[in-house]
Specification:
This protein is an alpha+beta fold. The protein is 45% helix and 18% strand. The chain has 4 domains: 75 residues, no CATH class; 110 residues, Elongation Factor Tu (Ef-tu), domain 3, CATH 2.40.30; 54 residues, OB fold (Dihydrolipoamide Acetyltransferase, E2P) (Beta Barrel), CATH 2.40.50; 130 residues, Helix Hairpins (Orthogonal Bundle). The strands form 3 sheets. A 7-stranded antiparallel β-sheet has the order 1-15-12-13-14-11-2, with no helix packed on it. A 4-stranded antiparallel β-sheet has the order 3-10-8-5, with no helix packed on it. Strands 7-6-4-9 form a 4-stranded antiparallel β-sheet, with no helix packed on it. A hairpin with a 2-residue loop joins strand 12 and strand 13.
Length: 428
């Protein structure tokens, strides 16, 4: 390599005067050219300077090289060796960069293999949302809202009172029902007493029948005796007629006594029917009392299960109708509905472990498991299911809802229906 002191006179640069000092860039180019000539197999070549006109075409109109019959093979080999020498120079000048590149390539290949072997054990989707059976809260009886005991987004337990309806109307209805029960009870007791009195009347009538029967039999004997005496001349005709008249009267009294017994017995049946009616009225009054008690209890709107109050619209003094929504209720029992592609369900089974990430808490992981897989795609149960038998058909990969259940959802996270989740199911 030429030394720095030899920059002057080491050569000339086209367009420069002889003996002029070279710049750093020109000096490096000349140094590289000197090294290439030193490594050449045949040593440095000192071609004689071309004479003016050497590059003119020959007599046949071609350049001297063309006239010679084509490129020289030695020149092609020299070009290839020059390329190899350039690659070798790059390796010598940048050994660290080449080593780092090779290591990075090997690490990328290894990471790709590890990722494939690991990822094939899982199925994931971003089409997943938290779901629950939320419903609207509404009073069962109408009236003015007396007080609202909860606020928005408040968590409540089962049995907690949420709102109060003005109960005065229902207290009055309860008092009326209790009064009706008292009246119905008195009617039942009166019917029982009347039946007892009528049964005594039946017994009295039956005794009168016995008395009339005895008088009738005696009248028969007296009439027969008087008739026999009159026939023999021992008795008078008047006596015979009198005894016959008494016999007829005794027979009429007996008939009347028997009719009285029948009438008394039938009156007992009437009174028993009245007793049944009053007993039924008593049962109806008791049912009305129970309904009045229920209506009074319905003035307290309570939570049927633990959950959270959202979209609270009821306010104190508002006239609420029966069935009118005053708030929405989200139960504590929530799950994830993940809409996996049907091609992802080959190895998915209930009970498999799931790791879930909620978009609201990206740094936390939630454990769960597969609860069930819906028997059918989501479009099959939509309001307007697809009719693939009509028109042109384009096959589309369907999505099937899969229910994922949290194993232990922490209390310090606020989650609700509609929040986005990214589940990863371990299928292998």
């Amino acid at each position: 390599m030429l030394e720095a002191d030899d920059r002057k006179g080491a050569g000339t640069w086209p367009g420069r005067e002889a003996g002029h000092a070279l710049t750093d860039g020109e000096w490096r180019l000349l140094s590289d050219a000197a090294e290439d000539e030193a490594r050449a197999p045949d040593g440095p070549k000192n071609d004689p300077p071309k004479k003016p006109g050497d590059d003119r075409p020959g007599e046949d109109g071609k350049a001297p090289e063309a006239a010679g019959g084509g490129d020289d093979p030695a020149e092609g080999e020299a070009g290839e060796e020059e390329e190899k020498g350039g690659a070798a120079r790059f390796v010598r000048k940048h050994p660290i960069a080449l080593a780092v590149g090779a290591v990075v390539l090997l690490l990328a290949i290894a990471a790709g293999i590890v990722w494939y072997l690991h990822a094939r054990h899982f199925e994931s989707t971003d089409d997943a949302f938290i779901d629950s059976r939320q419903f609207s809260l509404s009073p069962k009886v109408g009236g003015y809202i007396k007080d609202v005991l909860v606020t928005d987004n408040q968590h409540v337990r089962a049995g907690d009172v949420l709102a109060l309806i003005d109960e005065r109307d229902y207290v009055v209805a309860l008092d009326q029902a209790q009064a009706q029960i008292a009246a119905a009870t008195a009617n039942v007791q009166s019917a029982v007493a009347q039946i007892a009195a009528q049964e005594a009347q039946v017994q009295e009538s039956q005794a009168a029948v016995l008395q009339s029967q005895a008088a009738f039999e005696f009248s028969q004997v007296e009439a027969q005796r008087a008739e026999d005496l009159a026939t023999k001349g021992a008795g008078t005709v008047q006596r015979s007629q009198q005894t016959r008249s008494e016999l007829v009267q005794a027979q009429a009294n007996l008939t009347r006594a028997k009719a009285t017994v029948v009438a008394a017995q039938r009156q007992v049946g009437v009174l028993q029917a009245q007793q049944s009616s009053t007993t039924a009225s008593l049962g109806q009054a008791r049912a009305q009392l129970e309904q009045a008690q229920l209506n009074l209890s319905y003035t307290k709107v309570a939570a049927a299960q633990p959950g959270r109050i959202v979209r609270l619209t009821g306010a104190k003094g508002q006239l609420a109708q029966a069935g009118q929504a005053i708030a929405m209720f989200i139960p504590d029992e929530m799950w994830v509905t993940a809409n996996f592609k049907e091609t992802q369900l080959a190895d998915m089974r209930p009970g498999q472990k799931v790791e879930m990430t909620i978009d609201a808490y990206p740094a936390r992981r939630f454990e769960g498991h597969v609860a069930s897989i819906q028997s059918g795609s989501g479009t099959a149960f939509s309001l307007l299911p697809a009719q693939n038998a009509t028109g042109n058909y384009v096959k589309v990969v369907q999505r099937v809802p899969v229910k994922l259940v949290f194993d232990n959802l922490p209390d310090d996270v606020a989650v609700g229906p509609g929040m986005s989740v990214v589940p990863r199911v371990t299928v292998r």
